Amino acid sequence: MSDLEKKISLDNAISENLSSDDFQSEKAPQSKWKQFFSDFKRPNEHDFDSTGMTHEQIAFTLIQRSKPQLKKRHLRAVAAAGGIGTGLFIGTGSSLKNGGPAALTIGFGIVGICIVCTMCAMGELGVRYPVPGSFTTYASRFLDPSWGFTLSWLYAFNWMVVIPLEIVAASMTIYYWHTDNNSAAHVNVVAWVPLFYVALLALNLFGAKGYGEAEFVFSTIKVCAMIGFIIFSIVITAGGGPVPYRGAKYFDDPGAFANGFKGVVTVLVSCAFAFGGTEISGIAATETKSPAHAIPSAVKQILWRTITFFIVGTLMLGFMLPYNGDPRLGTDDGSGQSVSPFVLALEHSMVNAVPSIFNSVIIISVFSVANAAIFASSRTFVAIGLAGYGPRWLTRWLTYIDRRGRPLGALTICFVFGLLCFVAASDAHVEVFNWLYAFSALSFLYAWGTVCLVHIRVRMAMRRQGISTSELQYKASTGIIGSFIGLGICIAIFGLQWWTSLFPLNGKPDARIFFQADLSVPCVIVMYVGHKLYTKSPLYIKLEDMDITSGVREITEETIRENEIENEARRNANFFKKIINFMC
């Protein structure tokens, strides 16, 4: 058994001695202020036998003892709209301009297939192996510790960079109203940066529950906005507004494709980045109360989200806005931020106020992504600490979990790095963020491909070790074939990314463009090889040596009772409710 497996596989005798009171002080009642400050301390480590346990094992024990703070509706909300933000609302502008409306729909369709297959695989793994860090921990346990080390740091750094980037993006989106005749519109957009930063800081003091409740509200707003956009677009396209009937006019003139095959490839790569963040629901699943029901439901939400918001939504965008119809499409509006193509499409509908309403939704969406970035990076840092992927002083800090279950050590690192949002005051802030993001720009593809590969290997190991799939509480609806498809699409997109960065669209090869797109590749190689040489571990974990039985989610009597109650409610539901349950 590897060191990592020993760290995450706790001794059953110790587990049985753990009390059910989680992260709560057993001291006498305190005043609210004293209790508030007391909650920031570590939980009492001496109410169970920790003899012979390492610091990481103690930290993992305390995490396991914590009560799940996310409910089923929270995970549904994260799955339904958690990843919708800058990539969809702003990034599609350059995609539409470079590829055309048909290329946009094709790109989101192909990447959508990859995402659905990936999330089905992650759902199966998440129900069976509830561990902090989700797929980053799976990579260490079922593939190779060196790859787990590399992916963990890369993924955590990626989301950490996103925090200041999205704070700045939310502030810059306000620049859309700079021509309005009111004082708020003429305030320097940089002045909004500290407001968003403080709001994020306050929100994350509530821990996972605060993240879940905020995302529930944000996701509801985003879902309503996208559904409203689709309905509004249908009405306008059919000639029901102040503009005449359009139909599929823009698919004929200027055309369905802007730059042929290379345009489609460029859009395909951009669409992959737009889906970034979908995997956060797999990380959030470890903090839900009933993952056996919540995770399959979340997978369904991702399917419907992909079809409705990404495919249908961008298809309607192509009906509303020609790829050469507005000079602001996919370009900087003077603030360092592109105007959303959805806002431009609504402007072309000639209906007042609607573009401003949607721009407000975009600000909320970008803020939501920043909130999700803090959640994802902090939880990944906790997994890094538990795995011991760093100096001892750092891992001790990363595994600092307070009495309310908040990863204060990891959150502190995230918010300190988030102070980079104040470089927005500099004219070079765009260049700074481009190079920072370049270090981890492909981490989403690495993560999705890893999930699919882990699922394939776990299924193969189960067959090799004689374990039936009937033991799985939840089986991926796409099966192992879906994981092969998802892995294949990830590899294809990775290769196409190299091609488009070497030979960019409408331009000559440029070293700066290439390294900003692919700088993560040499970083990955250095980290992987360095860890492999330092640990001298085998190239990969053999199927017969994989430990696929320890750390499996325990089915307690309480869990069985909750599942029976929920199943009974599903059986007795009316027809309309059964339809909702089938879809959600």
3D structure, described in words:
This protein has 584 residues and is mostly helical. The chain has a single domain, classed as Amino acid/polyamine transporter I (Up-down Bundle). 65% of the residues lie in helices and 0% in strands. The model is unreliable at 1-27 (pLDDT under 50). It is a multi-pass membrane protein. It is found in: Membrane.
Which properties best describe this structure?
584 residues, mainly alpha, Amino acid/polyamine transporter I, 27 helices, 0% strand, disordered N terminus
In short:
With 584 residues, this protein is mainly α. It is built from 27 helices and no strands.
What gap, in angstroms, lies between the N and C termini? Answer: 39 Å
The assigned CATH architecture is Up-down Bundle
According to CATH, what is the topology?
A: Amino acid/polyamine transporter I
What is the count of helical runs? 27
CA-based gyration radius: 24 Å
Q: What is the overall silhouette?
A: globular
SSE topology:
Elements: H1 3-8, H2 12-16, H3 32-38, H4 55-65, H5 72-81, H6 86-89, H7 92-99, H8 101-128, H9 135-143, H10 145-173, H11 193-203, H12 207-237, H13 249-255, H14 260-274, H15 280-284, H16 291-320, H17 341-347, H18 354-387, H19 392-398, H20 408-418, H21 429-438, H22 443-464, H23 479-502, H24 511-518, H25 520-535, H26 557-571, H27 575-583
Helix pairs in contact: 5-12, 5-16, 7-8, 7-14, 8-14, 8-16, 8-22, 8-23, 9-10, 9-22, 10-18, 10-20, 10-22, 10-25, 12-16, 12-18, 14-23, 17-18, 18-19, 18-20, 21-24, 22-23, 23-24
